[in-house]
Design a protein that fits this description.
The protein contains two helices and eight strands; from the N terminus they run H-H-E-E-E-E-E-E-E-E.
């Protein structure tokens, strides 16, 4: 059985239409995505236990954190040794433009966090931070672990 190209004008018109649409749709629709529709706004908010290390001297610490979201940004409140630290975060891309991350700023600190999903499908953040106006040889580090109960 020989297969011949379809000569139906409707099929040809549909094929041309799909080709034109395929050429005009952007490769990544992320740039057109409103900030509050990014997947991070669905998976990041919650309560966390955090473990960290201060810049330079390497002293370690532990605390708790709550991340909430509002239109286009996150609110971070973390408590370490009874002291609250607040920051506002936005979804951004790394310098190469190939990794989405969250950058928090507030309480005299800048913090950049990668967002990943752990084996239990919970959000986990790993971050580095600096004190505003400093350029340490070794930044501070933090890891956020969710405290939500398993369902």
């Amino acid at each position: 059985m020989k297969i011949r190209p379809n000569s139906d004008p409707t099929v040809k018109l549909l094929a041309v239409g799909f080709a034109v649409v395929g050429l005009t749709v952007p490769v990544s629709s992320r740039s057109a995505e409103p900030a509050d529709e990014h997947i991070f706004f669905n998976i990041v908010p919650g309560h966390f236990t955090l473990l960290g290390k201060f810049p330079e001297n390497g002293d370690v610490y532990a605390g708790t954190a709550e991340i909430s979201s509002e239109t286009g940004h996150f609110n971070l409140v973390k408590t370490i040794a009874g002291k609250s630290i607040t920051a506002v975060g936005t979804v951004q891309q790394n310098d190469d433009g190939n990794v989405d991350l969250i950058r928090f700023s507030g309480s005299g600190r800048e913090e950049t966090c990668l967002v990943q999903i752990d084996l239990d499908n919970f959000c986990r953040l790993t971050c580095y931070w600096t004190v505003n106006g400093t350029a340490p040889n070794v930044p501070g580090l933090e890891a956020y672990f969710p405290t939500a109960p398993w369902d």
